[in-house]
Amino acid sequence: MSETPVPIPSGSVPTGTPAWSSADAVQWLQTRPAGWVRPMWSVLALLVTVGWAIAVEPEPPCSDAVPCGTDWGGMVQIGLAVGLLYWLTRLPELTLIAAPALAGIVAWVELPSADSMSRAANVAVIAALAFGWTAARERLATRSRQRRLTERAAGMGHPLPGPVGPLRRGTLPLAAALVLCTVAAGGVLLGLRGIHGDEQRAARAVRTTAKVISHGEESVQLRTDDARRITVDSYYPEDYGVGGTVTVLEDGSWRRLVAEPYDAIGWQLLVLATALPGLSLLTVGVLARRRAAALRRAPVPALRVLERTDHEGRTWVYAADDSSGRTPLFACFFAAALPDGDGSANRIDFDDNDEEEEEDPVVDTRLHEAVMLGAPYDGGELLLVTTDRDGHPIVIRTAGRLRFARTGKDPLLDPHALKAARSDIAGPRHQDQADRIAATLAPTSHPLRWGPGSVARTAGLAFTAGVAAGIAYFTRSLVTDGFGWEILPLLGLLIWINLAAVLLNWRVTADSTGLRLTGAWTVRHVPWEQLRAARYTDEGSVEIRLSDGSSWHLTGLGEPRLERRLRVRPSYVRMVQEVTTLHLHPELRPTDRCSPRDHGLPLGPVLLFLVALTTAAALFV
User: Fold this and answer.
1) Does 600 or 531 have the greater pLDDT score?
2) What is the DSSP letter of 296?
3) Which of 37, 181, 252, 368 has its CA 20 to 30 Å from the CA of residue 89?
4) Which of 550, 456, 551, 437 is nearest to 507 (CA)?
5) In sequence order, what are the residues at sequence separation of 6 or more whose Cβ sits closer than 8 angstroms to the Cβ of residue 547?
């Protein structure tokens, strides 16, 4: 239904500013990246291939000919791989530099000396990096295409509407990046100083040949050629067989093995912990500052559009001829831009008459005529010249990332819908769906149960086997080879225990008293009067909200887009729909209480115990 937008004063519109028509806007909207460009696929490919490469990488034992020590190249590889997991998602600009750098290091350092399995894994890493680089390049190309389409629709550039205050964008990230990068540089210098000090002392030390007579946990006992028995600290005592010969450096009371020079692993971990966020913040700050500075440089593209603010605080932008507000193009959070702004840009008033009740903001959700200055794209900077609720001109600017409008995602314009969204009371759409499902259900006395299907249980068993095998492998590797970078995936494997337990045995039971919710670690009882809503999120998780504000989650169960394409209705989706129906139709709830054995068994502790047994077997067998 068409509505009359709040007009903008003619003096606030630059002369010759064209309207952004629906035809041009839809063409702009259709340039969004293809599905394969989504960062999730690049991150998953990199995570799997790097984990494979680390697992199969041969690690030679320490020896006089090939001493262990500080591995700066390995630190750089790990740092780039970990950083790319974030940069692929949020910073494609940095990905274009980091991905080729890591691929070059892998090809130059790892491939020449690798065996067949390790070579295959490292080639897979390079392929994953190439895929991620291509996806990042396509995302940036999409931004360029959108800028060109905007400039073509605008025709000519226009100056900004008056002063916009000092340039502060990016200041905080740049300051934080400076501190973190300074700490990282200090860590590198201290690590190099430790290596240099060790080399100087080794040059003064006396070389002594000795035989290994026994091992300690972090030391080896030796007998020198002059029949002395000495104990030398060792990071990898298992590398030296009893009866073997080693070389010891001695300088007074100082001793170390020639095969084990100073290892700056502690400083390297500090460098990784500070350099990665520091580099990310530095890039974020530089990009924010460049985009804000580019917006200040006149002329910039200017187009007449329509905009409205919803009850969540987002501003939605529409084509100038979309007076019905039917097709939103993108949404973003905006804030006042002018230095003398009085905050009216938010167009929110508060009713001070009802002081004892919770005050809800009164938001002007009407369509407003506006002038968009700048080119819209993901992460871009924009200015909007629009009007407040009284029709006075205001200037607002982006305060967050620009997001494409998703199919089915509309502005929240109804204040009652806002309360429903905050309290999770089912809206009309859920009510209609619940009514349809209620027609297919019959009252019953027996408790109702929902749980995983055969596909989910198969996936849960596969995850469990993978976790157990992986932890056994890495534990055995730790015992035989000592600490190495390959131990890092151990922490990632432990995370999968939760998902495996959920896939194997999640359960929801409904009886006369309420719901019994069985997750990975606990069983929770929710009385019917405390239930607010059950929903299946766009991320494939189940969320059950309670009246006290808490919620219960089952994370990572499904893939909504794939389920819609295949037209399947998994058990967790059916559970959400039927629980919602029982919530809205009390007459359909079971009349009996469920027995204790129907409450469900959380498998998280069981799987954790299984993993502990596997680890113990790897240690002692």
Assistant:
1) 531
2) H
3) 181
4) 456
5) 529, 530, 531, 532
